[in-house]
What does this fold into?
Amino acid sequence: RSAPSRTISLTQNGAEAATDVRRALEVDLGFRVITPGDDWVVMEKGLPYGYLVWAHYAAVAICLVGIALTFLFAFEQTVTLTMGRPVAVEAVKRGGASLSSTSLRLVSGPFSAGYTERAEGADPDSIRSKLVASLSHERPVYEMRAGSLYPVDWKLDIAVMDDGVTVLEKAMGPGDPLRYGNFTFYLDGLDQTFRVRVEEHPLMLNVRNNDELVIPGIGPGLGLPVRFSVFKTGTLEKIDGSIERVSPHTRMTLSGKSNSGEDLGRISPGGSIYINGASLTLVDVDVNPVLGYRYDPGARLLRWGGVLLLATMALRLFGFWQMAAYRVDYSAPVV
It folds into this structure.
């Protein structure tokens, strides 16, 4: 029972007063009855507050279930793909001690990247730079340096097979991972392997990008230490805004303690570089995308539970809602 905040004297008898008050609240003011009774009658107007409370509790329960599922069953793993070949997606058991194969297979398509040129101002002390500076209607002088291509975009075609049937095909890109079921796949890196032949030697040397390769028979000591940069292929946006295809290539630099980082030149598959009178041929390059993936059965529950929780909190705090309770007092001479 609640103490009334306002008392109104009516001229009707008890039965008429109860009917007229309820009709005025329902018809004229738009209230609806929540709890009818012989004593206090509770009515509300606007949003159904009781249902909002239950929806709020349900959202909290959904979030708790999502947290439990994530804690118990979520895991992360990586997989290296080979273009055109199905590769199994493995699941990590509780504790990360062992792996088990799932029914999912990933098939990689070609990988391509988008690059842009970055130019640096020419020597400001040169006669040409001073001349350009004095003639403001001419464009500044720039010079391109070796390897001045910078990645700004990439694309990887991926197909998902489930029980031997292709169920999804997607072109992955920056900020656009692949999602299927409770799995989320994203590009973690590129595994690039260069196969190199010295002169006409039948055996080839294998090396990954940015790893050191010692080429025997060239240079002093055990051989010449070199490194290969990231293999570049795709499109190039030039400084003038034009777009052109990038000729697939890498750059070779000296490694070791002396002359480390010295650029030895650009080399493409099938091309050669001559060092100290010996030819070094890049036979081919294997580019294998490395995908990271996360399995999280509670992610969707957390996402939708969080949305429902925020919505119910906002409606409870800022939504229009009124409650009124009244009773007709028959004990006094005046109703």
Summary: The first strand starts at residue 32 and ends at 35. The two ends are 19 Å apart (CA to CA). Confidence is low (pLDDT under 50) at residues 128-146.
